[in-house]
Amino acid sequence: MPEITIPLRSHDEAMLVLGPYDRLAKLLRQSLDIEIYAKRGNLKLKGPAAEIDAARTRIEHVLGKSRKGRDMDLEEVERILVGKAEPAPKPVSSESRPQVRPPLPTGNSAPFHATHLRVRPVEPRNENQAHYLEQIQTKPLVFGFGPAGTGKTFLAVAAAVRMLRQGLVRRLVITRPVVEAGEHLGFLPGDLQQKLNPYMRPVHDALFELIEPDVFTRLEEAGVIEIAPLAYMRGRTLASSFVILDEAQNTSTSQMKMFLTRMGDGSHVCVTGDPSQSDLPHGQKGGLMDAIARLRSFDTVGVTEFTTDDVVRHPLVARIIRAYQAPSRGERTDEAPGGAL
Questions:
Q1: pLDDT single digits (tens) 267-310
Q2: CA-CA distance, 240 to 249, in Å (whole number)?
Q3: Counting Cβ atoms within 10 Å, is residue 304 exposed (0-12), middle (13-18) or buried (19+)?
Q4: Burial class of 204 by CB neighbour count within 10 A (0 to 12, 13 to 18, 19+)
Q5: What is the pLDDT of residues 2-31, one digit of tens each?
Q6: CATH topology for 117-325?
Q7: Domain 3-105 listed as CATH 3.30.1370.10
Q8: Domain residue ranges in the chain
Q9: In sequence order, what are the residues at sequence separation of 6 or more whose Cβ sits closer than 8 angstroms to the Cβ of residue 236?
């Protein structure tokens, strides 16, 4: 069966032709009885020669308009590709209609499609988690803080991946402050990236729980998912992104201000941390609780405080946390954990 390749200049051109959730590709398959898919940054068409030629003409028409700077919405692209005789079902409201988005830099990576994200369903396991997820969905900036094992980071990552799949954001950015917890970074083996990997490993673990590792690798290579130290955020504007700051108890007040002011149009930001596990130098004021104190009265800012009752790890974890919260004999009780207010 004949097969041709149509070169693409970016993954966004693939999204333009294939449509949200490969919707336009499905319509083309039905209309012309061909196979169409993206491979190695290009489009592949397979089918009868006449049908392939017709599809190529329509696709090159769309790409030609786009490359001349023409701003096309989804309906116009659909009319060119499948014609008025094959209209797609219209959404219930204009607000829910997917739009063709401006280009997202991806280098030479393979195209990203929302259908690549086969996300494992995640449901809240207690009332506080449900409240936390609701805030993430309805407010642009959310703080989640409390003890380990309460699902702060995992739920934030799950919500972010879901928004990415729905097309509500174009990129997922996860960052952590690189603070040495009693061990010196310079003595770890390897280059800088290898030294940083252990700090970012918990984030990778959360993502691997939700999506397949090979899909994650493709999205990371395409720049759709980015995991980087907090220092790399300076000077950036993060628009149309879901941004997670994890381990925020290890930020200084100036670092937290720097991070929060990276927020761009169409972005959602979630800040998570455990004030009782700060690795900041003794006496240094932490940015997490300082930011919560300053911002929690804003109606567009959500704050969820987790407690040991919300721990969803092994049942023993909650008992361990309570044991460490209780002062041991001879321990001073007039000091707050480093970085906490």
A1: 999 999 999 888 888 888 999 999 999 999 999 999 999 998 88
A2: 25
A3: buried
A4: middle
A5: 889 998 887 778 778 887 667 788 888 888
A6: Rossmann fold (3.40.50)
A7: yes
A8: 3-105, 117-325
A9: 262
